[in-house]
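Notebook entry, structure prediction.
Reason for the run: the old model in the group folder had no record of what sequence produced it. Starting over properly, with the input documented here first.
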Amino acid sequence: MSSGEEVKNILYSTIEDIGKERIRFDTTSNINLSEKYIDSIMSRCIPRISNSNSKINSWNETLAGVSEALLHFMLTVCTLPSERKIQLKEDLMVDVIIPNLQSLKRNSRKSIIIEIIKNKEDLAKIPRLEYLQPDYRNIWIVTPIPLSTKRYRTYSLTSSNATFHSRFSNIIIDVDGFLRDTGDRTLRLVH
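New structure, fully documented this time:
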């Protein structure tokens, strides 16, 4: 199984091969290019990490880990406001909140929770998120695991799920659209 560090090294070497500054310039100029870059990065990373993953569970966790790191990178280079890895209770950590926890508490309709599902145990966490985000349409799930729910917006990490769910490569475009639709004016810092 690929270690988390090995997977991140593969991801970031792929990003460097494409050019971090090129990705940043292109996506800040045209957010729709984020789809192309996510597809390209994932298609280059997956063959490199799949050779060392034989068990389905470890593959799902590895694929979810790559997508999480790539999501964090893309949110940063696209200058989209977010808070990541927020520990809310001892047994509840949220992966990503758009634009931030303060906005979620103030007006949940103008905030998104993005949860990365790495394994079947993570599925039990999803209903618990509704106490934070009562508008279930603003709970977005990224998963390699096939889900039958239509309650939450779901982003598939595999092409076999893409007919029933959104493609992961569209997530940055959707986040940007959500922020525009809600009139978000959070300060965006260019890194």
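Summary: The longest strand covers residues 83-89.
The old model has been moved to the deprecated folder.
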